Amino acid sequence: MTAEVAQSRRVALLDGGRRLDLVVPVRARVSDVLHAAGVPDGRRIRVVGVAGREIDASTLVNDLDDGTVLVLVDPAEAPPGADRRAHRRAGAVRVSAVWWAMAGGGGILALQRLLGEPGLPAAGRVAAGVVAVAASLAAGVVFALRTRSAAVGTLAPVMGAVALAFGGAVAAVPALPAGQALVAVFTGLLAAATVASVMGVLGAGATLRAQARTAALLLLVLAAVWGLALLLHLDVSAPAAVTVGLVPVAQRVLLSSLVDVAPGTFIDYGRFQTTRWTVRQNLPDEVRTIEAVDADALVERSTARLSVGVLLLVVAGSVSAFAAIPSFDPADPVVLGGRIALSVTVVLALLFGSRKSTVPFLRWVARAGAAAIVAAVLAALLPDSPPDLLVLIAGLCLAVGLGTGLLVVPVGRGLRSLGWSRTGDVLEAMSIALSLPAGLLAAGAVEVVRGMMAA
């Protein structure tokens, strides 16, 4: 290498669409390179290397490698298409706000009807309910036909249409001599499932279809629970308790059925399956290649199913918890034990299950559901509790709060424990296994079976 090359460095400078190839003395600084390239001194820019690391302007050229590429980045300058993307993002936020407002309106209609709050007269309430159901169906159909994007942002439209249909159908049920709440909730679940099914059939995007069909299936399962309670002339607390107990179990079933792939994707049946299950079984075709686009679409559909399923189950369980645990009356020890077990198992299942969620939004949804069930327990426990028990509950809440506050610091600093993690897995598995039986006990299933056997 000549002395001239040894005392200089070759530097490439990229400023937008302009490129300059310079030979700079090693004693010069990066600021001198910018000045020699004609960059104004008052211009606020950042110098970034190819690897993305920012390079200070006072850095000596001697500290840079020969052939270094310096990229000038203006923080105030927006990249190409940023305005258009920001405009689309702002429009999507406004549209999502409208859908969530529809969901809130449906919830208000349902609560006003179920709680018996004074408001619209009977005829006006029925008319408002019919209009709400028709509006949700029309909005869902229009959105399903016009949306061709595979984005996961279809959660708000699906939940908005479903919630408005549920609230409208609940409000449209006229006053009945008996079983008003059961009939109203059953009708609302059927209406919501119908709207979700229509969106799942007419949806132009694969993600929207997957999301709407998952919502429709879960709503039909809940409708079957409430319809069976209506046929058996049970109290409203019975299907509500079963709904709360179904939340952890349905979440586990949902997680195991998220990925929808062809049968020959993971197993080469032609090579490994030597015998047929039936004489008419056809071996699936072997999937030899998977494109990145297909993998991305699969992840989007699975995430959409998980998002709408968890949100729908947690909302249904949180609202039903206040009806499932009206009180802790010791008149029936079996029902009392079922309510206690239901509260403990569902709260533990939601809290421990939130650790494994890869979607931050769903973690907080599960934690909010656990908090809602705790609030329902406190609402049922506090009115009829003696003062001594209230003092004990307050002491327990204080101890739990202090323990949580003490654990926040080490956990925030990255504390991890394999032993505690495995203990949490065991408690989560036990809670999921016992939540539905606890819900059946809280619903009085023993008395129902006893009465059927006696008849």
Structure commentary:
With 455 residues, this protein is mostly helical. It folds into three domains: 3-73, Roll (Ubiquitin-like (UB roll)), CATH 3.10.20; 90-233; 319-455, no CATH class. It is built from 15 helices and five strands. A five-stranded mixed beta sheet has the order 2-1-5-3-4. Helix 8 runs antiparallel to helix 14 and helix 11 (333-353) packs antiparallel against helix 12 (360-381). The longest helix is centred in the N-terminal third of the chain and has 34 residues, at 82-115. The radius of gyration is 30 Å and the shape is elongated. The chain starts with a helix and ends with a helix.
Keywords:
455 residues; elongated; 5-stranded mixed sheet; single chain; 65% helix; disordered N terminus; 3 domains; Ubiquitin-like (UB roll); 15 helices; mainly alpha
Secondary-structure element pattern, one letter each: HEEHEEEHHHHHHHHHHHHH
Low-confidence stretches: 1-5
Count of the separate structural domains: 3
**Which strand order do you get reading across the main beta sheet?**
2-1-5-3-4
Instruction: Report the portion of residues in β strands.
Output: 5-15%
From the alpha-carbon coordinates, what is the Rg to the nearest angstrom? 30 Å
What's the shape? elongated
